[in-house]
Amino acid sequence: MFNQASSFLLQTVEFLLVYPALLRFYMQLLRAPPRNPLMPVVMALTDFAVRPLRRFVPGFSGLDLSSLFWAWIVEMLILLALFAVARANVLMGGPQVLPVILFLALLRLFEMSLYLLIFTILVQVILSWVSAYNPLMPVFDSLTRPFLRPVQRLLPRVGNVDFSPLVVFVICQLILIVPVRWLQDVARQMIAV
């Protein structure tokens, strides 16, 4: 029971710290409109860590790498804490365990990015049905356009229905099921967890 409660709390902390940092990075990468209702929330949740990190992790080509680095650090710490809760003493594995933890954290960030994309597309689709002129629509459009546009070019609309979100959902799920899970299993076997 203690393990389940601890895992739940760690996953909640992960949700509150990592997802906003990833969203901040992708909003800047994909040029989301800076004046939108979502930006103050994301900034409030991440500024305490990202601003000090900018002294050590400078931006590159206009990208806020400090927010991505913050997400990676937090994810590594969460993974170590989750392994500790599971009573897996990964630190006893020697120095070869650290690169595996670093890789697992990167892989987890990639997995979370795919979930963020799925959620963003889902919210965009629902908003397009309910409130097409919602102030968040430009934000969601900028975050999803690079992924939906290529599919929209290949797959024409049927009637007035756009099936590109469904295709992107399927592609994301296949990526999550096949390569991501396989790489996670291989990495976990390397640290014998």
- The tally of beta strands, per DSSP, is 0
Distance between the termini: 20 Å
Largest sheet, strands/sense/barrel: none
**Derived structural class:** mainly alpha
In what range is the share of β-strand residues?
under 5%
The global form is globular
The radius of gyration is 19 Å
What is the H-and-E element order? HHHHHH
Range of helix content: over 70%
Helical segment count: 6
Q: Overall mean pLDDT score?
A: 90
* Domains (count): 1
Low-confidence stretches: none
Give a written overview of the molecule.
By secondary structure, this protein is mostly helical. It has one domain (2-190). The protein is built from 6 helices and no strands. Helix 1 (2-29) packs antiparallel against helix 3 (65-85), helix 2 (39-53) crosses helix 3 (65-85) and helix 3 (65-85) crosses helix 4 (97-130). The longest helix is centred in the middle third of the chain and has 34 residues, at 97-130. The chain is globular, with a radius of gyration of 19 Å. The model has no long low-confidence stretch (mean pLDDT 90).
Short account of what is shown:
This protein is mainly α. Helices cover 74% and strands 0% of the residues. It has one domain (2-190).
Which features characterize this protein?
193 residues; mainly alpha; 6 helices; 74% helix; 0% strand; globular
